[in-house]
Design goal:
Layout (H helix, E strand, L loop, with lengths): L38 H4 L6 H17 L9 H9 L9
Length: about 90
């Protein structure tokens, strides 16, 4: 969200679901807008900072392309699009 027209400061908003997670604590919750959730959210696996990086990647994709990479016609179709692909990331 831009504060003023022509302003270069960007404000991040909507932290209504945010919380601090103590070290060593595991969180497994199904929350968030379907098209932005990571595969581990859909699969009820432990959440981590990588979960937030996934959402940031989706936002970046939308900003650069103008389209959502996983959005389906229904919530379930969106979840299938997110979990139905084999992702291979190499360590660098």
């Amino acid at each position: 969200m831009l504060k003023r027209r022509g302003d270069s400061q960007v404000k991040l908003i909507d932290f209504g679901l945010s919380r601090l997670i103590p070290p060593g604590h595991t969180v497994k919750d199904m929350v968030g807008t379907p098209e932005f959730v990571a595969p581990e959210v859909v699969n009820y696996e432990a959440l981590s900072p990588a979960t937030d990086m996934w959402a940031l990647g989706v936002v970046t994709y939308i900003l650069l392309s103008g389209g959502s990479p996983f959005l389906g016609d229904t919530r379930d179709e969106t979840f299938c699009n997110i979990t139905g692909v084999n992702y291979h990331f190499t360590d660098r």
